[in-house]
Amino acid sequence: MAFENKFIQQRIEKAQLLKDAGFNPYSNESKRNTTIEKYLNVNSDIEDKEDKRDENRHYCVSGRIKLLRIMGKASFAKIEDESGMLQVYIARDNLPEDFYNTIFKKNIEVGDIIEVSGYPFVTGKGELSLHATELKLLTKAIAPLPEKFHGVTDKEIRYRKRYLDLIMNAEVRKTFKTRSKVISLTRRFFEDKGFLEVETPMMHPIAGGANAKPFVTHHNALGIDRFLRIAPELYLKRLIVGGFEAVFEINRNFRNEGMDATHNPEFTSIEFYWAYKTYKDLIEITKEYFQYLFEHLNLPSLLPYGDMEVNFDNFVEIPLIESLTTIGGVPAEVVNDKEKIVEFLKSKNLTVKPGMNLGQLQGELFDEYVEEKLIDPTFITEYPVEISPLARRSDDNPDITERFELFIAGREIANAFSELNDPVDQYERFKGQVDAKDAGDDEAHEMDEDFIDALSYGMAPTAGQGIGIDRLVMLLTNEHSIRDVLLFPAMKPIHNEEKITQEEE
Fold first, then answer.
1. Which residue among 173, 319, 416, 434 has the highest number of C-beta atoms inside a 10 angstrom radius?
2. Which of 143, 210, 201 is nearest to 502 (CA)?
């Protein structure tokens, strides 16, 4: 890191002056005995006292200076820790001799992290504050914070400098606390249901478990390429073969694809597999899961999302083919005829990839005409076999599978199906995927003979589901870009001459 900025140079000089004066600007000792939130809660009764103070109560708090008003013999500072913001009153006569004028006023600035000891009191304006009797610099910040107290607003800076975003925007910290709670609650929900949390490999010999383009890496010791996993599905189902009856994994997946408001190259999901259950059982447990989240996060069942309101008291089920006409408005005579679908799509100036089969074309119709209209939670069921290589065929109609995808606010949130456990059928479907890959589909599934071998030993009837944690958190926090719920989203590199910070604008 270069320290060419003149403001940084000035702060470096102040840090050195503090060192020369015998004060360590990067202390490793703190006497903090409470958080700001606890301090405010415990001392809320001070305003009931006659003089609105209590010098017998003593506290030590620490935090970053977010606002500083320096006056002649006294100053006010706003300091912030993870839990909240507190006003501190700093008077010359309450601090060691000359400390206020020579150290505090000249060398301590907004952005620095300080420790303050003192007693509670309420100001004339009615604000519960801390009257400082001792002040210590814990960390000197040499980079100045943006001048505006209202936070970092430039999206580019927020994503590239998430640490600065978190410093300046309390709502951002709230979003990521909610994300943490969602993951914790998810784990607790499935454990309470009797599921076992497991870990499976992140580097796979075959890119399997989903139709997606993988990232490729190289294993030096083995001398072979490996693929960062696009899904844990095939390993989790191996565990069902092995005798576990309910397993789940919360972890990252990696897909070497485009980036947009709902896609990041690495993303978090939960996948869970449940023996002796069907996709119908998964619909019910999914409803329970959402009810559990909403209860523990204190969310209203009528949830605002942008300019929409999503009604979580209204879960809908509808087959994919039926949705094309009743929701998408596609003519009924078109939806089951390959040639008519191609003509229909071309008449709408939509590109049709050569060689697409009927199921893939029906999927194109769904993506184009139905998905964005699914606002309330909607289980789209009965997907074509051609676009469901790992799902079990319906006993009533072998052209469709026992599968659903859950859509909320126009976006896919979950994918689930009764698992295919017929090894011969699975082998034939893998072969079809291999043919598709050879024909140019770089997202088609590869042959996984070890998985076929595992199925050959017998996998109990099983249902499995994946839920995208990132998109779920977006929904629950009313965020509209996946980058707003990822602490460190993938970003395109920039050259040094292109770099700009908000404080330099």
1. 416
2. 143
